[in-house]
Amino acid sequence: MSAPLHEARPAGPGRALPDTQQGMRRRNLSRVLHTVSAEGPLSRAAVASRIGLTRAAVSTLVDELIRSGLLEELGPERPGRVGRPGSALAVSGHGPAGIGAEVGVDHLAVCAVDLRGRVRSRAVRHVANRNRSPEPVIGDLTELIHRVVTEAEGEGLRPAGLAVAVPGLVARDARTVVRAPNLGWQDTDLGGLLPARFPLTVANEANFGALAELWLGEGTPRDFLHVSAEIGIGAAVVVDGRLLRGNRGFAGELGHVPVQPEGPACACGGRGCLEQYAGEEAVLRAAGLEPGEDRVGVLAGRAEQGDAAVRRALHDAGTALGIALTGAVNLLDPESVVLGGALSGLAPWLLPSLRSELARRTAGPACPVSVSALGPEGPLLGAAHSVVRGVLDDPAAVAERT
């Protein structure tokens, strides 16, 4: 079973709920749960005040959410106050959980996040996945998923779905990897390889990274361009709090924007793509370093020590990023650009040339460039939180499955 990629929407997991009494009830359940999640602990009266429903109506909705294991009562809201205190409500720490997974070129990762946004279980395996066939890679990932799910269930959680981040193009069916050049995959149906026990969403890692920034970042605007990188470089555009996915769902392939039309050949089949100048392996080559497990740590350490070759390589990578980003900024006019993934760990040496190039080439005022605090964790956290957001968007659907 596949599920849509959840975005920042007021109601429904990627679809509008019908204007019927049942549809209204589902929307109101979502409104209550979203409100408690964002602002709780809250009393029933406080929830009613915030969403504009009667206290009696909210009480009925709250009771349903408690029976479904989505809300729990913590006791009196403010003991000692005049009058009878209301019972404080919070989203459950022992209810549904989102399972997020990430397939990287050199690693696999899985985590479980509860409705309160806490990571309750996590597993990582460092393994070279480039040019491995999908079956053994997903076999390894499935082992990690089972480990995380077992740990989560041991803490009283019940997985509500599985979301998988991949470094490639994903079809709108949210399960088929159309092309992942850095893995060597093409037209791969992950839905047929992953456990059928959970609703499944597969999406590009940059999209999940952008959603994590939107939901978890501090002061992140609702219109921004998110850039993330490891071996490859991806981007995602968020407009008014929603992903701009494109006609086929392929928007954001910044790494394959040419910055030197006759430059080196790229795995995508083109030449002179941004990845050939600003991807991790390209920067290591330019710095005269061999690839290793902690590539970003090595580059950052050498740059801090004043290694001229590394600093020059990072300067040139920042310039290439600035050239590629100029086209996107001029076309889309985002409020800001956010650097995530591995790029965030190299920002002190990338940003000066990136900002200079962007300011020199952008038609309008310079676009602010900031660094994500989530770093390389963004795609994995975004995947897990997308499942959690699906629960908040349509809690009735979760109750129907249990």
Assembly state (oligomeric):
single chain
CATH class of the largest domain: Alpha Beta
CATH topology of the largest domain: the name is Nucleotidyltransferase, domain 5
Distance from N terminus to C terminus (CA atoms, Å) equals 16 Å
Describe this structure in words.
The protein has 402 residues and is of the alpha/beta class. The protein has three domains: 21-91, Arc Repressor Mutant, subunit A, CATH 1.10.10; 96-210 and 379-401, ATPase, nucleotide binding domain (Nucleotidyltransferase, domain 5, 2-Layer Sandwich), CATH 3.30.420.40; 218-373, ATPase, nucleotide binding domain (Nucleotidyltransferase, domain 5). Helix content is 39%, strand content 21%. It has twelve helices and 15 strands. The protein has helices spanning 21-39, 44-51, 55-67, 134-154, 205-216, 275-278, 280-287, 295-304, 308-332, 347-361, 378-393, 395-401; strands at residues 71-76, 87-91, 96-103, 107-114, 119-126, 158-166, 169-170, 176-180, 185-189, 200-204, 224-229, 233-239, 242-244, 336-339, 369-371. It has a five-stranded mixed β-sheet with strand order 5-4-3-6-10, sandwiched between helices.
